[in-house]
Amino acid sequence: MNRPRATGVTVIGGGIAGLVVAYRLTQQDVPVVLLEQSAQLGGLGVEGEIDGHPIERFYHCIMPSDDALLGLLDDLGLQQDIEWRSTTMGMLVDRRRYPFNTPADLLRFGALNPVQRIRFGAVSVALRHLGRGKDLDGVTTEAWLSRLYGREIWSRMLQPMFGAKFGDAFAHVPARYVYERLGREKNVAVRGYPRGGYRSIVDALSRAIRDAGGVIETSATVTNMSETASGIEVTVDGDVIESDRVVSTVPIPVLHQIADTNLRASLPVSEHSYQGVVNVAFLLKRPLDGHYWSPVIGCDTEFDGVIEMSALSGTRRYDDHTLVYTMKYCKRDSPLFQQDPEAIAQRWTDQLRDLYPDRIGADDVVATAVFSAPFVEPIPFVGQSHLRSDGHVPDTRLHIATTTQLYPQVTSWNSSTGLADDIAQRVGSSDFSVSTT
Predict the structure, then answer these.
(1) Closest alpha carbon to 42 in 78, 69, 18
(2) CA 412 to CA 417: how far, in whole Å?
(3) What is the pLDDT of residue 43?
(4) Nearest partner of 225 among 250, 188, 205, 207, judged by Cα
(5) CA 246, CA 22: separation in Å to the nearest integer?
């Protein structure tokens, strides 16, 4: 393609944040070039396939409270394409399966004794009230929840359930993270899924950007970025694009790799550790228990959760088969990232079958697919809220829009969209001096 030599803003990264930044800037008539290293746009939201069916590599849902994302979909004419369903939660504890949605379910929950069940229910009902107005940024989740629920419930249920997300680092995660997450997600909740999958959102954004004159390149590898007297030069596949400003949406460690020495000195030194994830998707002939989300505790499995995606997305798009995800959050140096995907799929198939022997027979697994990503979830830390940034790297023409800036919000397409909206508004109000001819 005819790559421009200069532009108003170069956006690095074609995930949801990068696409929304580019879209909002083109709405403000700002010349934009968006560069994505992989062959497809959408980042962690798309790019998957199982048995010939397009799927997301990692499970996502839309909540009725996702104002930023719903506003974007309304702009794109897609809000009417969301299919809303009431979803439920299960629990798998010590190889037993439980529904976990109603007071009656809790009373029958054999993983806790009767006194613990009553305490669990009473605290859970009051938890939002108990946390309101408290400085939950300055206390760890363990300190807060173990005091409210008691050490036994913490050790038996909560630490394994929440710790699955962050591993050993969970001891340092602020209580506000859990408080905000519980505010967004409930056991029984109406969730939404786009009729055309998340790919339909990505496609609509890319069309809108191009229709407004923006340039999008995939398979575009950025190797260097350096400031000049008049802007920022971005080197991509040997060519140089001179930009008035750059918005980077790639993880901070990746940004450090592409910035030159002078610019790197101005970058924030990331205080975050990132969790990666390994997912195995299963296409099954039969449904499981119908629960969208089921934590897995004490079941001798490598994965820590089962997501029955078809409970949200339906089965029609998969030839009436059921789509299930199993996941393991782990750091990018975990041995799982080095192992043969087929070996992982085989082990996890056996483990899933052991949990659902009445649902998964010898011939019920139609297909599997293994997906992994090294930078999925930045691990929040106590005191993080005092270090919040507006996204502008001081004394440079560089702005960042990454998941490290989302806390205390839960990492999601909604929070990333909201962040991208804010960054695009800030960047769009800047003076642009680079010629775009």
Answers:
(1) 18
(2) 8
(3) 86
(4) 250
(5) 11
Structure tokens at 353: 């079958």
- What six digits make up the tokens of 5? 């030599």
Q: How far apart are CA 358 and CA 381, in angstroms?
A: 42
User: Residue 34, Cα to own-chain centre: how many angstroms?
Assistant: 21
Q: Do residues 175 and 144 touch, judged by C-beta distance below 8 A?
A: yes
Determine the Cα–Cα distance for residues 320 and 283; give it in Å rounded to an integer: 10
The pair of structure tokens assigned to 361 is 């027979």
Nearest in space to 143 (alpha carbons), one of 182, 179, 175: 175
Q: What is the pLDDT of residue 128?
A: 85
pLDDT under 50: residue ranges of the chain: 434-437
Neighbours of 320 (CB within 10 A): 10
Reading phi first (left if > 0) and then psi (alpha if -120 to 50, else beta), residue 29 is in left
Sign of the CA dihedral running 165, 170, 174, 179: positive
3-state per-residue secondary structure call for the chain: CCCCCEEEEEEECCCHHHHHHHHHHHHCCCCEEEECCCCCCCHHHCEEEECCEEEECCCCCECCCCHHHHHHHHHCCCHHHEEEEEECEEEEECCEEEECCCHHHHHCCCCCCHHHHHHHHHHHHHHHHHHCCCCHHHCEHHHHHHHHHCHHHHHHHHHHHHHHHHHHHHHHCEHHHHHHHHHHCCCCEEEEEECCHHHHHHHHHHHHHHHCCCEEECCCCEEEEEECCCCEEEEECCEEEEEEEEEECCCHHHHHHHECHHHHCCCCCCCCCEEEEEEEEEEECCCCCCCCEEEEECCCCCCCEEEECHHHHCCHHHCCCEEEEEEEEECCCCHHHHCCHHHHHHHHHHHHHHHCCCCCCCCCEEEEEEEEEEEEEECCCCCHHHHCCCCECCCCCEEECCHHHCCCCCCCHHHHHHHHHHHHHHHHCCCCCCCCC
The tokens describing 371, both together, are 């997906």
Q: What is the pLDDT of residue 135?
A: 86
Token pair listed for 265: 């000195």
Structure confidence at residue 27 (pLDDT): 96
What's the angle, vertex CA 75, arms to CA 72 and CA 79, rounded to 5? 75
Residue 183's pLDDT is: 60
Q: Peptide bond before 31: cis, by omega within 30 degrees of 0?
A: no
How many other CB atoms are found less than 10 A from the CB of residue 152?
A: 14
Number of Cβ within 10 Å of residue 54's Cβ equals 14
Cα dihedral 291/295/296/301 (nearest 10): 90
- Residue 161's pLDDT is what? 86
